[in-house]
Specification:
CATH superfamily of the largest domain in chain B: Tetratricopeptide repeat domain
CATH architecture of the largest domain in chain A: Sandwich
Structural class of chain A: alpha+beta
Number of strands of chain A: 30
Oligomer: heterodimer
Order of helices and strands of chain B: HHHHHHHHHEEEEEEE
Distance between the termini of chain B: 57 Å
Number of helices of chain A: 9
CATH architecture of the largest domain in chain B: Alpha Horseshoe
Shape of chain B: globular
Radius of gyration of chain B: 24 Å
CATH class of the largest domain in chain A: Mainly Beta
CATH topology of the largest domain in chain A: Immunoglobulin-like
Strand order of the largest sheet of chain B: 6-5-4-1-7
Largest sheet of chain A: 7 strands, mixed
Distance between the termini of chain A: 75 Å
Chain lengths: 576, 251
């Protein structure tokens, strides 16, 4: 928990430095001997990047992973990542590690060139050879194209080893596979060489050349620390228990091996060449030679032998029209060992009888190149015959009956009996381009309803402002004036309408709602809201006049009505 | 009186009409010829015809499916896979495309190492069974309905259709996020299919770089970056490297 808090503290309070990005390459030494290695480090500060080591041609490059470090100086944190490589010189002389490109956060940096002086094998390496040495050999240095050969790497050792690392060659131009799956299964034995006894470990690979021509198998490299006794140690402490040994690092490599791959002679035989190189045989087996119409017989074609049997493709099986073939996935049982690939591939085809009769299946030929004879060979299966008899349904009509409740279910799992793809789609609408919606159009259509909603909301807010008390009261005044203009109103109704119109017009100036006002209130309101004293007084007097007429109960003639209405209308309009 | 400019406009319109019609009939003839060639077992000829149509700019799942079939029958597994992939991108729920794609995938040699969890496919089933277009339109429709409800509520000043609104909001979000993720995938996550029978994946972008591992025709990889004539591809956890652009067909 405390660690976590500490980490959070650092992440939050110690800022990363804004230092410039920097890339450096350096070697642990610039003078080496053939058979020795050196360490190259490519360091990147202030960013993340990976060096491209492909321009290094004079050395074999082995990646040793990446290390990173964080430094905090004066409260500022900086990070540095280092890629480590082991370089093994391939030749002697003045070799160069060219500038390496490193892409850091999108920018390309280049390291400085490093020159390495490589001298011939020193005496020390010769001395080490008596403790450990390596060898590589191939079973055949002049194979045919497609012929499998065995590459064997042996290391002889008579001291204890630590940190052993094996780098196999690239095997460029070959397919390669180790003959054992697990490391424990590698061959190991003891032998005597030049009077010294060694433990020998063998690593074998099956190689199949992909093309003809001269090919070079690059050196295999073994890196290991030899646990040597201390030369001048105190006899008392010269014991492993007291650390009487020291680790002496060493790099041991084999010589490159030249392979001259011979092309296969031109194939002039009948049928198609299978591509197999080695020693093979072919067999055919028919599971059931007599079947009824609609039933199937399984034809198995087995190809077995030694060589590149993994490349064996399904043979062409000519079948009469009266038999419908359904191919099954091929099965193989191929093992890899000291003699290379060996095993068999089985191709099964279900033949379903379509018409009754006796049908002969042609021989199936296998044309391959026989290494031991140095020529093409052809092998064929035995001829087979299938007899299709009429379906049983014709002889004995099938009787259908409901399954008994106690009986087993009659249903069974439906399995594929053949494999093929479904047919073409022949509709001409295949020629119409399926238009897809672009991202901007999708975004536009997506945000359109949101925009509409916002517009609606804005319109409502805007219209709500018009519903202010001032507007409402002025609207009410107008409405009351319109009512008063109607000819069928009684005097009381007419005067009430005029009163309402005038009161509403005055209150609209105060911005308040209400139904009634006294004369003095009306005068005060108008004076307070900037109207002249005369206008305020006129409005007050008009209000008094209307109220008096209303409460006196006097009957108003048409002339009086018209005058009072005109006067009120003028006042209301002057107050707008 | 008809002016010269009107006559010229009329002739131009006629030219475009007949030109378009002629192109359409030419395409139809090529399509029918290719279909016939396929049925007669001339698969290379069928490939050539369907490819010509695809190269002319027609983007259609059925055409891509037919091209995949023709390539598969002519023995080009890598090219078949890439056209099936392109067809599935347009119509992920088409049963014919899925069936033939599955068949072609069973013929590839490289074992798939980074397998997508079936739980993910069950949880996000709509992404795997609906076409990107359908997902986009579903997202837009649900979004429109949701905002219509909001507008009705604002207009009437009443809290109406609350449960329906929540339901629509959830589905609109699901489909919108799916459509956005699909758009992101097609814009930034590029995939490719290995085309030749076998290629070497190398440590650098040059022919003599170390071979790290080999891939075979039909294997699907992710393109991480490109440099000149090379793609850096990701096959599975820890298996990355450089391949030539001509060896990998971008889906």
């Amino acid at each position: 928990m405390n660690r976590l808090l500490f980490a959070i503290f650092f992440a939050l309070f110690i800022p990363y430095s804004a230092e410039a990005q920097e890339v450096r390459a350096f070697a642990d030494r610039t003078q080496v001997s053939l058979g020795e290695s050196l360490q190259l480090t490519v360091s990147v500060s202030g960013g993340d990047g990976k060096a491209d080591t492909s321009p290094i041609r004079d050395f074999k490059v082995i990646s040793r992973g990446t290390t990173s470090s964080v430094q905090i100086v004066n409260g500022r944190m900086s990070r540095e990542a280092a890629e480590n490589y082991t370089l093994i010189p391939l030749t002697e002389g003045r070799l160069k590690i060219p500038p390496l490109e490193v892409k850091v956060d999108g920018k390309i940096f280049k390291t400085e060139e490093i020159v390495i002086e490589v001298s011939k094998t020193p005496q020390q390496a010769d001395n080490r050879r008596q403790y450990l040495f390596v060898e590589a050999q191939v079973s055949n240095s002049e194979p045919y194209e497609g012929e499998q050969i065995i590459y064997t790497f042996k290391f002889f050792v008579n001291v204890r080893l630590a940190n052993a690392r094996f780098q196999k060659p690239d095997f460029k131009g070959f397919t390669a596979k180790e003959t054992v799956e697990r490391h424990e299964d590698r061959k190991s034995y003891r032998t005597v060489v030049s009077g010294r006894e060694y433990n020998v470990t063998e690593l074998s690979f099956v190689l199949i050349p992909l093309s003809a021509g001269e090919k070079i198998i690059e050196p295999a490299v073994l890196e290991a620390d030899l646990m040597m006794s201390r030369r001048k140690a105190d006899p008392f402490f010269n014991d492993p228990f007291f650390g009487g040994t020291e680790l002496e690092p060493g790099v041991f490599k084999t010589d490159p091996i030249k392979i001259n791959v011979k092309p296969l002679p031109p194939y002039t035989g009948e049928g198609k060449f299978s591509g197999l190189v080695g020693s093979f045989d072919i067999h055919a087996f028919l599971e059931n030679a007599e079947i009824n119409e609609g039933d199937s017989a399984t034809l198995s074609i087995t190809v077995d032998g030694t060589g590149n049997i993994t490349d064996m493709e399904e043979p062409q099986i000519p079948v009469p029209d009266a038999l419908k073939p359904y191919k099954d996935a091929p099965q193989d049982d191929i093992k890899i060992g000291e003699s290379g690939y060996k095993g068999q591939k089985v191709f099964r085809t279900a033949l379903v009888g379509v018409r009754e009769g006796e049908y002969h299946l042609d021989q199936i030929c296998l044309n391959y190149f026989d290494i031991s004879k140095g020529s093409y060979q052809s092998k064929a299966t035995i001829p087979l015959t299938v007899k299709v008899q009429p379906a049983k349904e014709k002889e004995t009509p099938r009787i259908y009956s409901a399954p008994s409740e106690n009986g087993k279910p009659l249903k069974q799992k439906v399995e594929f009996t053949g494999r093929d793809i479904l047919p073409l789609k022949e509709e001409l609408d295949a020629l119409q381009t399926q238009k897809t919606m672009t991202l901007p159009m999708f975004a536009l259509l997506f945000f359109a309803p949101i925009l509409m909603c916002l517009v609606l909301k804005a319109a409502l807010i805007f219209s709500r402002k018009d519903d202010s008390p001032s507007t409402m009261m002025m609207r009410r005044a107008e409405k009351a004036l319109k009512e008063a203009s109607a000819s069928k109103l009684s005097s009381d109704e007419f005067l009430s309408a005029l009163y309402r119109a005038l009161v509403s017009a005055v209150l609209s100036k105060a911005g308040t709602k209400g139904e009634s006002l006294t004369y003095s209130e009306a005068m005060n309101i108008l004076e307070n809201f900037g109207y002249s004293e005369q206008t305020a007084k006129l409005a007050s007097e008009l209000l008094e006049k209307i109220e008096s007429a209303k409460f006196s109960g006097a009957v108003m003639n048409e002339t009086m009505r018209t005058e009072l209405l005109s006067e009120t209308r003028r006042m209301v309009r002057s107050l707008k | 009186m008809i002016r010269k400019s009107e006559i010229a406009l009329y002739l131009l319109a006629m030219f475009f009409f007949f030109n378009t019609t002629a192109q359409a009939s030419e395409s139809a003839r090529t399509f029918l010829d290719s279909t016939q060639a396929y049925k007669e077992g001339h698969f290379d000829k069928a490939v050539s015809g369907f490819k010509k149509l695809a190269d002319s700019g027609i983007v259609n799942a059925k055409l891509f499916y037919n091209l995949g079939n023709a390539y598969l029958k002519s023995g080009h597994l890598g090219f078949a896979m890439i056209w099936y992939e392109r067809a599935l991108k347009l119509e992920p729920d088409d049963p014919d495309i899925k069936f033939n794609y599955g068949y072609a995938a069973s013929l590839t040699k490289d074992e798939k190492e980074d397998k997508e969890s079936p739980i993910i496919q069950i949880l996000f089933f709509w992404k795997y069974s609906l076409s990107p277009d359908l997902i986009q339109w579903a997202a837009l429709s649900l979004n429109l309905l949701f905002w219509l409800i909001i507008m009705i509520r604002i207009g009437l000043k009443k809290k109406l259709l609350t449960p329906a609104g929540y339901g629509l909001l959830i589905f609109a979000l699901i489909f919108t996020l799916t459509a956005s993720y699909t758009a992101y995938q097609s814009a930034y996550l590029r995939h490719a299919v290995i085309l030749p029978e076998k290629i070497s994946v190398r440590s650098g972008f040059s022919e003599d770089s170390t071979e790290l591992f080999a891939l075979h025709a039909g294997t699907k990889v992710r393109i991480e970056k490109e440099n000149g004539e090379f793609f850096r591809i990701y096959y599975s956890e820890g298996k990355i490297g450089w391949v030539k652009k001509s060896d990998a067909g971008v889906i």
